[in-house]
Design goal:
By secondary structure, the chain is α+β, with helices and mostly antiparallel strands. It is about 35% helix and about 20% strand. The chain has 24 helices and 31 strands. The strands form 7 sheets. Strands 1-31-2-3-6-7-8-9-17-18-22 form an 11-stranded mixed sheet, covered by helices on one side. Strands 4, 5, 23, 27, 28, 29 and 30 form a 7-stranded antiparallel sheet that branches. A 3-stranded mixed sheet has the order 16-10-20. Helix 5 packs across helix 8, helix 10 crosses helix 19 and helix 18 crosses helix 19. About 0% of the residues have low confidence.
Length: about 800
């Protein structure tokens, strides 16, 4: 017994020692927020104050010193995230994750983003400020890489440190641009529907843009089966270790709309949730420059920002800048494809993908005049005819570095608009407001018209010389509004008004948020910072109420159980709110899922239906298709000698929804509150491993909001007991030019990507509660509330 006790004590002691050693090692990896560091290539001592939420406020003698130090502090909080995002476009995730990342690598390496980056860098002015400032930033990143602490993720995965280059910056912007696109998710599904059932089935999906009534007002004056493309690319983006961009809200109020008589700016880009989150905040000051910016990992210039003179932010334009073409091989020569001018040789690119703990994979990528053939880049997509991917980003001159630099250094609204014009892809709504009382909305993107009768929402014919004809529009035609007479600009990814009578093709989101935003803004002219903060966290959907009010009269009230009657009553009295204690959204969401399933799955099949649930066309179709008593989708094609009606489908769906909720949440309808089913967890790439999950992931939390309200917390419709939120506001920002030093912001989790940092998750509860914190600009206040890290010149 004594021996067992001694053995137990020895084992326990060893475990304690090991635990102390592991804790000590982890604590050693914490970022330095105070003290002194010697660093090369700065001309004078540079001071960084880290405020109470870990945001660095950099005070430097000149911009170059500031950029070197920015790179250093960015890396010490986000080096792991930088490492991940730079690996996506060039297909290097398999080097650290092994074969499970091979699908991602094959696809992204095939797109040609890396080759486009190399070409753009070769044409860059090496004497220009954008190049010099970007290289200074990379110098700071690489000095941390060489001399700083190693993130725990590097140790776990055995990642070898390699210097960051300008190509990594361009590749990061390239991945961002691709993640915006919706064509690859939507066009294959619509093409399958058209091929199998005809044009009549497309009408209820709004392919003619008739389902986009609330539009952004301009102030200028065979059937090959393609569903596997949509399924595969959607899965690649959803499972990517770096989150894709999805949607966003923004509005800027003119002095005539604000209580203070100054511009009021709001923005909340919607991005898939992750840990760490997308944005790194930093305030950079030198004698000739100041900007409080939001940076992507490994990039030198902010995509969102403000100073005392102006503010800018972005939402997704959702325009169509990518097309899929069905090609045709030469039956006598597999190395040739058919074009309008006869057979042409494929261009061949050979790439090697290194795979951790396995042999390397040699990939031969065929390219037509339109772009790479994606058949061999997508798992399970094996068809007789090749399909190519045509994307404006890789086909037009790439000036993205100049563009982002210009946005963050503009001296006036004209310079700012010029910076926007440099961006050929992705299509963005870029919002602007300034201290001189100007407000504006600009769109980026190289826009083009196709031949009349060619539908960009379908897979196009690559051989006829017609479908690929593009008439590029001058940038002056891009939708915009500067100081409009209605005294505000806004965007919620909805469709703009026609351009010279032309409805620009895109994958726009439904009118829900646009209607709510415009209704609120139109009916009030004395907006304050507090008012717009409440608006940014608004959970109300007037469209959902209209959908319910259209459905309820169709539900048969004669044969309802007591439980179903209570549910009906709750829906009748619902005001469209999606707050934590509301019950109606729980019922509504389940009803919508079963309605969608019973309406669309029989025609689409299970795989395509699941992909349909992830598209914008699904969201925009609900309000209109449910009203259409003659819609062909109501009929269940799996039932013989019977044609189902709207009434039958909606009654069936309602009963299935209540039965499902009864099974999942119990018999008491009033206990089916939204907080029990609507949850969020911010997931780290290593959090999928059970051992690491508690250490790396943040949450799970109850969260308010829903799909397509202003507080847009997005999930896929399903019959699961919980609706796990996948995406939402990646930040909420309010810049008030009457009191710019007290502007507000919030992040979903925290500023740091280091799990040992106090700022890894210190904003999570505030974010969920709709609270904000200051974006500090006042140096005296910053010094009083911050730690101090001094960089000395070596």
């Amino acid at each position: 017994m004594k021996k067992l006790k001694k053995l137990f004590l020895v084992v326990a002691s060893l475990l304690i020692i090991v635990g102390i050693m592991i804790t000590g090692c982890l604590l050693y990896t914490k970022p330095n927020y105070e003290g002194e560091i010697s660093i090369k290539n700065i001309s004078k001592e540079t001071t960084v104050y880290f405020d109470d939420y870990g945001v660095p406020h950099i005070y430097a003698a000149n911009q170059k010193d500031a950029m070197i130090v920015l790179g250093y502090v960015h890396a010490q909080d986000r080096l792991w995230q930088m490492e991940l995002i730079r690996r996506i476009a060039p297909g290097k995730l398999s080097e650290i994750f092994g074969t499970r990342a091979l699908k991602n690598d094959k696809f992204f390496i095939g797109l040609g983003i890396e080759e486009n980056s190399e070409k753009a860098i070769a044409e860059l002015d090496k004497n220009g400020k954008p190049y010099k400032m970007a290289m200074a930033y990379l110098d700071g990143v690489n000095q941390y890489l060489e001399n700083g602490k190693t993130p725990i993720e590097f140790t776990i995965l055995g990642i070898k440190k390699e210097k960051f280059t300008l190509k990594d910056v361009y590749n990061t912007f390239g991945y961002m641009a691709f993640s915006f696109a919706m064509a690859q998710k939507t066009d294959p599904l619509l093409t399958d529907i058209k091929n199998q059932y005809g044009d009549e089935y497309l009408k209820d999906l709004g392919i003619d843009y008739s389902l986009n009534p609330t539009r952004l007002k301009i102030s200028k004056e065979q059937t090959q089966q393609y569903a596997e493309i949509s399924k595969s690319i959607t899965a690649l983006l959803e499972n990517s270790p770096v989150p894709p961009f999805i949607g966003s809200n923004s509005w800027v109020l003119s002095p005539k709309k604000s209580k203070t008589g100054k511009v009021l700016f709001c923005n909340d880009p919607h991005i898939e949730y992750s840990q760490p989150g997308t944005w790194y905040e930093a305030h950079v000051t030198s004698p000739e420059y100041e900007m409080y910016g939001y940076y992507l990992a490994g990039t030198p210039f902010p995509l969102l920002g403000h100073n005392r003179d102006y503010a800018y932010g972005l939402t997704m334009f959702e325009n169509d800048d990518a097309d899929l073409f069905q090609e045709e091989n030469n039956p006598k020569n597999e190395n040739q494809y058919k074009s309008a001018n006869g057979f042409e040789n494929y261009k061949i690119r050979t790439k090697t993908i290194k795979v951790k703990d396995s042999t390397s994979v040699i990939l031969k990528i065929k390219e037509t005049q339109h772009g790479p053939i994606i058949n061999d880049l997508i798992a399970d997509f094996k068809t007789q005819k090749p399909v190519s991917f045509s994307w404006i980003y890789t086909q037009q001159p790439n000036q993205i570095l100049d563009a982002v630099y210009s946005l963050s250094r503009a001296k006036n609204i004209a310079e700012f608009q010029k910076g926007v014009s440099y961006i050929v892809a992705p299509g963005l709504n870029i919002m602007y407001g300034d201290a001189k009382n100007n407000i504006a909305w600009f769109t980026s993107g190289k826009l083009y018209k196709l031949e009349k009768g060619v539908n960009a929402n379908l897979i196009l014919n690559g051989t006829n010389g017609i479908d690929d004809k593009k008439q590029f529009l001058d940038y002056s035609k891009n939708p915009s509004a500067i100081n409009p007479s209605w005294n505000y600009v806004y965007s919620s990814n909805n469709m703009p008004e026609a351009i010279d009578g032309y409805n620009y093709p895109g994958y726009y989101l439904p009118e829900d948020r646009a209607r709510r935003i415009t209704n609120l803004l139109d009916n009030k002219s004395d907006w304050s910072k507090d008012d717009v903060s409440k608006m940014l966290t608004d959970n109300t959907s007037p469209v959902s109420v209209e959908i319910v009010n259209g459905m309820l009269p169709i539900i048969d009230n004669e044969n309802l159980s007591n439980q179903e009657k209570i549910a009906i009553n709750l829906l009748k009295n619902w005001k469209g709110t999606n707050n934590l204690t509301d019950v109606a959204p729980t019922i509504y969401t389940k009803l919508i899922y079963f309605y969608l399933k019973n309406t669309y799955q029989d025609e689409m099949g299970e795989i395509s239906f699941k992909q349909f649930l992830k598209t914008h066309i699904m969201k925009q179709s609900i309000a209109f298709q449910t009203k259409n008593i003659n819609s062909p989708w109501w009929d269940n094609i799996d039932t013989n000698n019977k044609k189902e009606t709207r009434s039958e489908i909606l009654n069936l769906s309602f009963k299935q929804a209540i039965s499902s909720l009864n099974t999942q949440l119990g018999a008491d309808v009033n206990s089916w509150t939204w907080n029990k089913v609507h949850k969020v967890e911010y997931k780290h790439p290593l959090g999928s491993v059970a051992l690491f999950k508690p250490f790396f992931n943040v949450g799970k939390f109850e969260i308010s909001g829903t799909n397509e309200v202003i507080n847009n917390t997005m999930f896929d419709y399903s019959d699961e007991i919980e609706h796990i939120v996948k995406a939402g506001p990646s930040t909420r920002r309010i810049i008030d030019f009457s009191d710019v030093e007290n502007s507000w912001s919030i992040l979903p989790t925290g500023q740091s990507g280091n799990p040992m940092s106090a700022h890894y998750n210190d904003q999570a509860e505030m974010y969920l509660q709709g609270k904000f914190r200051k974006m500090k600009l006042n140096k005296e206040e910053i010094i009083k509330t911050s730690t101090k890290l001094v960089f000395k010149a070596k």
